[in-house]
Each structure stands twice: as C-alpha cells, then as structure tokens.
Amino acid sequence: MSVVEFHARRRAPLPGSAEARERSIRRRVALVWALLVLNVLTYTGSLLPIPGAVGKAVTQGALPLALLVALTVNRRVCVRPNVFLCLVGLLVIAAIVTALQPQYLGTVYRTFRLTEFFAVLWLLTPWWGRRDLLLVRCHLASLGVVLASVLLGLLVAPGHAMAGGRLTGVFWVIPATQVAHYAAVVLGLVVVLWLGGKVRGQATAAVAVVTVVILILTHTRTALVGTVAGILVAGLSLIVAKARVRRFFAAASIVASIVIITLSSVITTWLARGQGADQLTELTGRTKVWGPLLAFPRDNFQMIFGFGLSNDSFNGLPIDSNWLASYQTQGLFGVAVCATILIFLLVAAYFQPRGVQRALALFLVAYCLVASFTEVGFTDASMYLLDLTLAASLIVPSATGGRPTLE
C-alpha cells in the first residue's frame, strides 16, 4: 500500500513465521491509519447515491473499528511515553472539563470522539521511530487513495469537480482546501524522501507532476505557501549532508527566477483568484468573522477553557484560523497548548541527528504552522492532528531495532 517506491534496505532475514507475523502487523497498522484518515473525512455528500446516514455511519464507525484493530495488534496495550501525546492529552482533558459543564453538554460526542482518537494514537506509539518509515508509508498510501478518488471524479464528472472554478472531491465531497492540503503533504513528503535518497527520481517526478496539477486546480494559496516553506525548511536541514539537496536548491532557484520573470502576470492572476484588494486584505472575508469572535463576551471559565469542541464556526460562519478556533473551543488554555506543541516539535527536531526522518518532521511542522493561520484542526480529531502525530513519530529514537512485535 504505497504510492511511491522506497529503496529496499538490507536486513537480517527473519524466519518464515516471524516474517509472516511482521507482514500481518504492518498491514493492520496500515489499516488503523487508513481508518483514522477515513474518520477525519467528514461526510457531507457524494455524487453517488449514498444516503447521508450511511455515509456518516461509515466515517463515524471507522474510529471504533480503528480502535479494535489497534487492540488486535497491540493486545498488551504497550505504549511509548512521549511528550507530544501528553500535550495532546491536555487538550483532551480540557475538552472533557468543558463538556462536563451543564450548558455545554452538546459537545459530549465530539469530546468522546477526540478521546477515542487519542487512545488509538497511543496504541500506535510502539511503531514510532521505525527506520523503515512505516507510518509515513501508511500516510502516503491513505492520502494517495483519497487523491486518486478526486482525480477519478475530475475525469468522470469534470463539471461537478470544478464547480466554482476549484477542484473538489465528488465521489466523496471534499472541499478544495482539503484536497490541496492532501496534495501538498504528499508532494512535500515525497520530495523530502527523494532529497534524502529514499525514493527514486522517476517516482518522485510522477507524484510531483500529479500533485502540482492538483494544487493549481484547487487555487489554494495556503497549501502552496505551506508546501514551499516546508520543503525549504526540510531541505535546509539536509543541505550540509546531501549534495543532491544543494543541486536541487540551485536548480530550483534558477527555475523559479525564470518563471517569475516570464510568467509574473499569470502568477499574480492565479494568486488573486479574481478577488479585489478589499477581499485580499480581509483574507477572503475571514477577518469579518475574527473581529466579532474576539469581541464576544465571555466569563472567566469561557476565556480560559472556551465553549467546548464544535464544528469550528461562529454565528454559522467558518472561523478559518486554528488559533481563533482554539480560543473559541478551548480558550486561552487551548491556544497555549497548540503553541507549545509546535514549539516542542521544532525544538525536538532541532536536536535530532541530520537525516531524512528529521527533515520529514520539519516539513510537516512547518507546513502545519503556515496553515494554522487560515485552517483549523489542531484541537480536534483532524488531518492536521494526524500530520503532527506523524511528525512526532519521526523524531523519537527507534525501539528494538525498529521492529516491535506486539500481539
């Protein structure tokens, strides 16, 4: 289940039964991760005749199924202590405290979902730090399936897929911003893997062409800026050790200069998306929501712990900022924890040895940091939380040679 071809590693051969057990464990871990990805793909409709109740049951049922599968692969419930999930645990505790307030009982389901999601992440910790990058493979495979469904929808129903001038999912309705997020993460991870010598050039070129086309069709500026920033940060962490990285940056600088000089008007038009100066300064209307949200009256409890987990909206309008959404749902406490998570991941990555795992983690953290200003998801079960979990899993030392066998 991989969209890219990793170079094989030499390792000591395992006995037949041990090799079969290892394959079974890898498949179940991949299934758990795929179910987590499915759970965060909130069902809002489909081009196919799928009843809404069935679609929601699929996504909501994916999480308890992921928990059950995780328990089959980690029957002894062994976990690796780590600071990242302890910090996420603070968000879970804050959500539970808020949900226990009588006036916020409506947040109970979302709080239970976050707690269940959190438990599954803990059960996967024995597979953190593996040298074969198992979780990275799982993430790429899962996102690759999602993007393949988007491209298939574009081929089958281009009118629906490009409604509004931006590429969206139609077989499973996925907003353009989320499609761009998935494409950006796949592009960045594969490029960083290639810079680290883990992926062949032909596979990298194929993935890069497809994901760049998707990014262009989605017209999402945040994903584009986040991808460039993430690859830049990750590449700089490898530039001293890898001649390939130095050549890549030299070639990229030349190409970027030529493109900017020759296609500056096209790039400006694409970035503007037909919006006027007022829309650009208001970040496509986002600031119209942010101002009233900050001015909304709150008591001391609401200021510290927020109003509880919600659909990240205010007065029926999307908040579109992780920091303001965190303030709304989990108060100043949630904002502080989100900032601490990002700072911890950056500092922990800084003290890791140079290598592809560190570079991958830096890409993910840099991308999420850029996206946090106009996207939401750090304080709830979301793809951004999965991205940050993947980053945290890459900056921990390998356990038992990278091959835990827990059943």
Describe the structure.
This protein is an all-alpha fold. It has one domain. It is built from 17 helices and 2 strands. It has a two-stranded antiparallel sheet. A hairpin with a 2-residue loop joins strand 1 and strand 2. Helix 9 packs antiparallel against helix 16. The longest helix has 29 residues. The chain starts with 15 loop residues before the first helix and ends in a 13-residue tail after the last helix. The mean pLDDT is 88.
Low-confidence stretches: none
Order of strands in the sheet with the most strands? 1-2
Overall pLDDT metric: 88
Task: Please provide the ordered H/E string of secondary-structure elements.
Answer: HHHHHHHHHHHHHHEEHHH
Instruction: List the domain count as a whole number.
Output: 1
* Form type: globular
Compute the separation of the termini in Å: 22 Å
Q: How many DSSP H or I helices?
A: 17
Summarize the structure.
The chain is mainly alpha-helical and 407 residues long. Helices cover 66% and strands 1% of the residues.
Question: What are the SSEs and their pairings?
Answer:
Blueprint: H1 16-40, H2 52-73, H3 83-99, H4 108-123, H5 134-156, H6 158-161, H7 176-195, H8 201-218, H9 221-238, H10 243-262, H11 264-272, H12 277-281, H13 287-295, H14 300-305, E1 313-314, E2 317-318, H15 322-350, H16 356-371, H17 383-394
Antiparallel strand pairs: 1-2
Helix pairs in contact: 1-2, 1-5, 2-4, 3-4, 3-15, 5-7, 7-8, 7-9, 7-16, 9-16, 15-16, 16-17
Keywords:
407 residues, two-stranded antiparallel ribbon, single chain, mainly alpha, 1% strand
